[in-house]
Amino acid sequence: MSKPTLLILAAGMASRYGSLKQMDGFGPHGETIIDYSIYDAIRAGFGKVVFVIREEFLDRMRSVFDEKLKGKIEVDYAFQSFDLTKFGVNKVIERTKPWGTAHAVMSAKEHVNEPFCVINADDFYGKDAFEKMAAFLQSEVSDDNMALMGFKVGNTMSDYGYVSRGVCDVDERGNMVSVTERTNIYYVTDGDGNRKIVYEEEGKQHDLDPDTRVSMNFWGFTPHIFEVAQDMFVEFVEQNGDNPKSEFFIPSVPDYLVKANKASFRVIPTSSKWFGVTYKEDKPVVEESISNLVKEGIYPNKLF
What we know:
The chain is an alpha/beta fold and about 300 residues long. It has helices at about 35-45, 60-70, 100-105, 125-140, 225-240, 250-260, 285-295; strands at about 5-10, 50-55, 75-80, 115-120, 125, 145-150, 165-170, 175-190, 195-200, 205, 215-220, 265-270, 275. The protein has one domain: Spore Coat Polysaccharide Biosynthesis Protein SpsA, Chain A. The strands form 2 sheets. Strands 1, 2, 3, 4, 6, 7, 8, 9, 10, 11 and 12 form an 11-stranded mixed beta sheet that branches. It has a two-stranded antiparallel sheet with strand order 5-13.
């Protein structure tokens, strides 16, 4: 079987963070979070990395990644744009924000022909997650058996505001029953002074167990997912074309496949503590976390 591909979603403008955080440095020599993900992917056995970006970022991305990755892993770029015709939607819809993460994945259809893993550019997932996903993609994946990495929501929080997570319902066999995108998960303090996790829906707070498995947009797919997503996207645009804030999220595609009994999704458990830069205040925490991993010998002082 061919080596799997790593698909990195990097088209967002990072409105909450305040800058193009995908290119921000966090490691001892200015390494980005993307650098650590690619390093983990290479040593786990991935053969290609595809960046999904806005076309105007291409020159900058190439100047950062092409030379240092030369000879280490194949590199390619796909563009997320507002042109809907290539997805079977023959209309022009004015928007200022892209159509969401599932649309970003669809944008890479012409660049991926093998089993692949999808990740966010600004999330640090760790060595364990890449090793487990690579093993799955090389030995178990099929059009009717795909996967996601299941992080404990308590290991994925920010102390500085809300986060978005795909909350998973998992059966006794470790397969996903459903996944629901929760866009407003955060900490609150109860009347006894204890901190707990809640998500907000229609103005109401709901408790969320810290051990609940969530998706961090770390998915293992076959190219079959492109065809399924495109069919769903045409319907999504028809129903949501007048809503400029509507987004076609990745979890909606696996959720449909599972509920329609067309595929199963293994929730691969990891106890790794995720960290990322949802907010500017998160940066020192990420820098310290990476520094500790370097001191422990999990990563070299200089990656490339």
